Structure formats: structure tokens, C-alpha cells
Amino acid sequence: MRLTTLRRSAIAGLTVCAIAGAWFALSPGQPAESSVTTRPIRVGRDGSVASDSCRTCHTGEHTAWRASYHRTMTTVASPAAARFVNDNVPTPSTWGPMSLVARDGALWASLPDPDRPPPAEPARITPRVALITGSHHQQVFWYETGRTRVLGAFPLTYLIGERRWIPRSAAFLQPPAPVLLSGTGHWNQVCISCHTTGGEARVPDMYARTDPAAMTADSRVREFGVACESCHGPGGGHVRSPRRLASVDGAAPAGGIVNPARLDPVRASEVCGQCHSVWEWPDRAAERDENEHGSKFRPGDVLARSRFVVQPTRNLDSPRVRALLADDPDFIRDAFWPDGTIALAGREYNGLIDSPCFTRAAAADRTLTCLSCHALHQGKEDRRPAEVWADDQLQPRANSDQACLQCHESIRARVTEHTHHAAGSSGSRCYNCHMPYTTYGLLKTVRAHRITSPDARVSRETGRPDACSLCHLDKPLAWTASRLERWYGMPQPSLDDEARSTPAAVVWALTGDAQQRAVMADAFGRAEARAVSSEHWVAPVLATLLDDPYPAVRLIAARSLRLFSLPGTTHYDFLAPREARMQASRQALAEWRTRAGAPRAPVVSDVALRALTARRNDRHVALRE
After folding, report:
1. Which one is predicted more confidently, 292 or 21?
2. By three-state DSSP, how is residue 248 classified?
3. What is the pLDDT at residue 119?
4. 522 CB-near residues (< 8 Å, 6+ apart)
5. 3-class SS at 195?
6. Helix, strand or coil for residue 369?
């Protein structure tokens, strides 16, 4: 997935006729693709077919794909595809009223024109919504600008779980945006690369344009969303001759398709890495070619021929990274932890290729790949509801230690000896220690995919929280260091008085930068951490974060604090004026202090909380989600 923002502008027996017709099959009431002129369209090319062509022979796989969130990465807008529960769209008064309503089988927006920012008086526009991105956690709505196939971005994002609208800027970990920001052309130039299959941006003069209102595009895709051909390659030849042209060993014959599960570990993981990585084009010539003709990468290819995967642990001093940093000095800092570990969700390939289970495996069949844990199609033996599988597309065994013990067999009989935690406890789970929640995206944290071991020295030097401190929220870093030395012989680093007396989780939550604060706010809400750490003292730390300058941090802290069922948090709105937010915070803390079990001597005193907050790292953070 590209890291950049818009810096440059601010398989089966069907007849050939049926195959061709499948490209233009849309929801009832939608116009035929061939007649659409105001949004990107689906166009078949290079032996491609639509995913519905696979359904007759591969019914189970097709059904699973239909249930996945890959399919709905981008969809043609319709009332049925929208997840919002009503058209009440509260917005900051300075922006003026906005709405998003269903009418005549389509979605229509009303908003001030983001391409006419202050001091100009924004004209009100009432465009038709063309595409929707997302269906799992959030939805972003893209409208027709009327200028060729260029799309604009509705300035609000809908949070599906919270059932509310928020400014698009607040949906990311970045400082608040006081003005209405234009997102015009962002889908055409950025999202199309990974949120569709076979995207062709077709933006003329892509390096020359600076005014989004002057942008033109003839953007096309083979299919909206991440579809069958994203992972298997063009399927037209396979549809015409299924047996002769099916891949049996990973290397697809001419006109055939690829089964990633049969590729060698490196090529198999690169199928996922084409999108699930921090990448840029190798050079501008490659970018221009993909802009016009789409990506040349096909499953089974060498990824490096079409994608430059940015990996600070390997290529930080390369000419390409140096050029990227010259263009954007924060390119690395806003995507990786200081030790080069990926910090962004959705870029799991970056973590995988830095993991010893991938880099130092003794044999191919013992090499960790994406498919070691994830199932791109729900298997017949998986009895879970489809929506449970679709949440993260994990194999059933990946929800247990079996995902790791399939290779680390020697640990199976001595789990307690290895982990120093009771068998079956959260501390004995392989992934809780080696894949902690330090990767951020979509207003939450997910497991790191760079498999590591807890290391107090790394935590001290980089600020990347270790697994021990993410669970034992009430323990200082020195406590973690002493256990790691006693259990695993790891040398203790030099630590100051604060690291010996104050819980590391609290230090990161209050003195850290916005990235650290968001990770810790989420950690304070995890059930296993609250159980291990005695949750009674946690409320004041989270209440302090309700006044954080970053909207995303406030939202996550409020979500965690609501687990305490305190009245003040019921009415807390992370986007409300500061005084209203703090009134809710004070009410919650007053209720907390009256509860039985609230400690008379908190782990961290009110004085210490204020002193830590005064040292908050206010560096500019804008994670490149």
C-alpha cells in the first residue's frame, strides 16, 4: 500500500459472450459501465475476467470471497452498500451543514465545495456519490466532481462500530484540521492502486498539477475491490481451458492462473506484499507506466520488479529512500518505529520479511508466510460464521498456539517452562509475547507482524512498547528487565529512576508522542491487561488522555474508559469543545473516586499524572495510514 499522500496536488465454462458481459453486471438500478462518464469504470483487459466467472466451478471459494472485506475495499455506491444508519450528519459549524441521503436508488451528498477553501466563499455542491471505500470499520464516500472521472472525498467518515460521522481528518492519527480539506483526486491517484484490481489511474501530467480543481482523469479498473485476479492473476485463459491452464506447481503456464499456496514462500508472500506493504514505485518511469497501463505485477512475479518496498532495516541508505526522504523528510518516521519496525496496520508484509521465522528458516516448508496463519478462503472444516472468519481471515488454528507450535514443536511439552506463565493464561500465548499490539490503524491497534521477543533495551531506546509492559500496565520497565534477565539471560539496560519506579505504560501514555499515546490508550482497554494489572487505578490515566490534542487519541481513550461504566463517559464526545470534554472527564473521575475498590494510594498520584503530562512529546505526528 502506497505510503504517499497527494503531495503532487497539495473459473469456469462460460461462453466468451458471457465472460464479456460479466464486466458490466452491476447492482439493479445501476447504469451499464459502458455508459458511465463521471466516475472510474470497470474495463476488462489482458485476458481478465470478472470474479463472477469463477463462481460456477469454484462455488465455495467465491462464496467466501463474497463474504470478505477484500471484496468491499471499493464498491460502486448504492444505498444497499452504505452502512450508515441515518442521514443525520453533524458537522463542525464552521464547515456548514452537510448531508448524505438515498434518493432514486443512488446516494447524494450536499456539502460546501472543499476545492474552494477560505478565504474564498465555498460554493455548495450536491453531487452524486460514486464509490464507497470500506465496509468493516469505516466507510469513506467519494463523489462525482463532474470533471471527467475525478472523484472528490466527502469530508466526513462514517465509523460503523460507533454509528457516527466524524471529520475525515479525525479518522487518522494526525493533528486536528481546522479547515475543510480537499480530497479531490486522492482515490484516482492513491487508493486505486490497492483498493481495486488492475487499477489504471490515467491522470495526465501527474507531476505538474497542483490545483485539484484542474485535475482530469480517465481512471479504470479490472474490478472494484480486491478480487480473484489480484491473487490468482488474469483468468480468461483458465476459464476457456480450465485443466490445461491451471497452475499445479505455482508457476502459471501461459494464459494460466496461480495458486499462491503452491508458490515458494517468498513468492507466495509477495502476492500479499503487493498491497500490504509500504511501497513506492522503483522510479518515475515505472510510476508513469503504471499510471497509464496499471501494475505489471502478476502473482508469482518477483515483486521488486514493480514495487520498491521501503524497509528501513535493509534499504534506508539506498538511493531510492534518500530521494523519498529528500521529497518528504517524515516519510520514514511517520510509518515505522525508530528501530525500523512497521508501525502501520495494513503493511504486515513489512513485518513478516523482518521476522526470523521468514529470514532464517531452515527449509521452505518451515518458512513463515502469510498463508501460515491466514486463509484467503474459508475452508469447509471451518465451522465459524463467515463474519467471524472475515474479521481477520485467520485459519482456525491461528487463534491458538498451534500457529507457532506447528514449527516450534520442542516448546509444546514445556510451554510453562518457556513462558513462565500458567498454561492457558494470556501470558502463555505465543502471539501475546511475540506479536504485541504495537501496530496502529483505523483507530485501533493490531498485532505486530515483525515477530520479536520482549526487550527492555529496545523499549528504552526506541519507545516501542514491549509485550510485557503492554500487559503488566502497573509495572515499571525495570521490572520487565529483571524478569527477562532472570528467565532468558537478557542483560539489563541502564535505566533511570523513573524507569525503576513508574509504570512504563503510564510513562508512554502521558509523555510519549501521539503514536505512543494511541497505542497505550488502546492497551489500557484490553481485558487481559486490565485483569493482570488490577484495573482500579487505570481510570485517571485514561481520563487525562480525554484532553489529548489529537482527536484519535481522545476517541481511543474514551472507548477504553467506557469499559468502567462511569456516567461521565456516557456523554463524552471526543469532538466536543474542550470545556465540555473536560466536564465529562471530571464527572467520570468523581464517580470513580467514590467506588469501592478504588485505591486510596493509586499506582500513580494526581501530582505525578500532571507532571508526566507536562512532559508530553508534542512533535507533529501524521501516521501514513
Report:
1. 292
2. coil
3. 65
4. 437, 444, 445, 556, 560
5. coil
6. coil
Average pLDDT, the chain: 88
As a whole number of angstroms, the distance between CA 294 and CA 223 comes to: 12
Helix ranges (DSSP H) in 47-112: 59-67
C-alpha triplet 362, 368, 374: angle, nearest 5°:
160
C-alpha–C-alpha distance, residues 407 and 167, integer Å: 46
> Distance (Å, rounded) from C-alpha 193 to C-alpha 199?
6
Answer yes or no: are the C-beta atoms of 622 and 175 closer than 8 Å: yes
What lies within 8 Å, CB to CB, of 28 at 6+ separation is none
Distance separating alpha carbons of residues 555 and 522, to the nearest angstrom: 10
Residue pair 432/426 in contact by the 8 Å Cβ criterion: yes
Pair 260, 271: CB distance under 8 Å: yes
What H or E segment, with its residue span, contains residue 349? Answer: helix 348-352
pLDDT tens column, 70-92: 999 999 999 999 998 765 666 65
CA–CA gap between residue 114 and residue 6 (Å, rounded): 15
Gap between the Cα atoms of 111 and 96, Å rounded:
8
CB atoms within 10 A of CB 45: 14
CA 309, CA 336: separation in Å to the nearest integer?
A: 13
Question: Please, what is the Cα angle at 234 between 72 and 36, to 5 degrees?
Answer: 55
CB of 104 within 8 A of CB of 172? no
Q: Containing H/E element for 439?
A: strand 439-441
Indicate the SS3 state at residue 142.
Answer: strand
Whole-model pTM over 0.85: yes
- Measured at the CA of 351, the angle between CA 350 and CA 357, to 5 degrees, comes to 125
Alpha-carbon distance of 350 to 448, in angstroms, equals 10
Q: Is 42 helix (H, G, I), strand (E, B) or coil?
A: strand
Q: What is the mean pLDDT of residues 558-580?
A: 88
Q: How far apart, in Å, are the Cα atoms of 470 and each of 333, 416, 528, 612? A: 22, 20, 10, 18
Q: How many CA atoms lie within 13 A of 566 on its CB side?
A: 29
Reference 170, options 490, 600, 514; nearest CA is 514
Residue that has been written with the C-alpha cell 464507497 in this structure: 132
DSSP letter for 5, please: -
Instruction: Give the pLDDT band (50/70/90) at residue 97.
Output: confident
Nearest to 23 by CA among 47, 46, 41, 50: 50
Distances (CA, A) of 130 to 41, 56, 266: 10, 30, 37
What phi, psi does 381 have (nearest 5°)?
-80, -10
The helix (H) or strand (E) run that includes residue 606 is helix 606-614
Task: Name the grid cell of 223.
Answer: 474490478
Instruction: Give pLDDT tens digits for 101-155.
Output: 999 999 999 999 998 866 667 788 999 999 999 999 999 999 999 999 999 999 9
β-bridge partners, 244: none
Quickly count: other Cβ atoms within 10 Å of residue 156's Cβ: 26
